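Title: Prediction job returns without error message
Component: structure pipeline
Severity: low
Priority: P3
Assignee: unassigned

Description:
Job completed but the reporter wants confirmation the result is attached to the right record. Sequence as submitted:
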Amino acid sequence: MTDWTIWQALDDWRSRRRELEPVFAQAGIAPELESQVNRILVDLKRQPPTPPLVSGDRQRDEEERSRYNAAFVRHYDESLFKAESLVRLPWVPEASPIGEAIVAEVARLRATLQSSPGEAPDFADLEALLGHYLRLDHPQLTISPELLAERRRQIADVAGWPLLVQRSTAQPFNDVVPPIGTEAFREAFYAQLDLYLATPWLHCKIVSQWYATLALDAVLMRKKREAGDDAFVAATFKHRWPSLSVLLPQLEMADQIWYLTLIIAAIVALFGEYWLVAVPLILWLNLSVGAHRRQRKRVEQRREELVARAQMLKKVRDRFAAGMSTPDRLAHQLRQLDPGDETFGASFYALLRLQSRER
């Protein structure tokens, strides 16, 4: 279900940043277009220049008449130029046939002004076309309200998803989006990113920046969580001292249960004078203490390495978010930090290539 508070946030961004205007325009939302049409209609109704008085001097009258005709054409040409430029602005693509009709009507009016200097042409057809173009109600158009409603839903659900994540993160009890940095969030993020990449009319610099920064934030959060997880850090070692936690990593307090069982067995063997059982158990327990101490040191060393990588990623992320690093540079740096491309998926690098083209 669409969260219309996100739509409101996007509309605020549109009013402050012009990058979102083409996206909203394709969904039939362009207040600036309506203002321009109104200005054109007002300009067309302005009083044209007054014809010069006849002085009786033929040469002088012809020069004055020539200047008047040129001024008369210029009076309307500015409005016609605005009308012609209007159809080049972002708008609903399905309205392009009416845009072509406006261009053709402007060409006809210019020809009329040149062929009949000093006579104002009939602008009724141009005014009607401009109205149809703005309201999307021309008989030739087959734009259903459901189409525009669907595009507006996509703006809120796809382009506004990073804002939804930002709002969900700021509210601790908001579970609309999985916690950032989890595997569930990664799956949801790449599903939304694939939708964004598959919808070309939504592509714009600022939304691409939101998605790219969100991907970096999610990876950074996950790496910080992994660095603080002893079990994860220990699992990165190829060789570990054999214990129950190695065999059953999902079992809570596995090592405690394992060594408590061995201690009880050793005590029972000692009291029962089963020396062939007690001595190996006591020896194994002593070796285990030393092995776990060494493993603890290795865990701390590996943790320092993971923290250093996370700090490096944080610097890369901050430079990119501040606009001090290009998408191509970011891709190069991330491939150095993650040579196997295990952290960032192919869709993320496709997003960076898209950003490079948008610049």
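Comment from assignee: result matches the submitted record. The first helix runs from residue 4 to 16.
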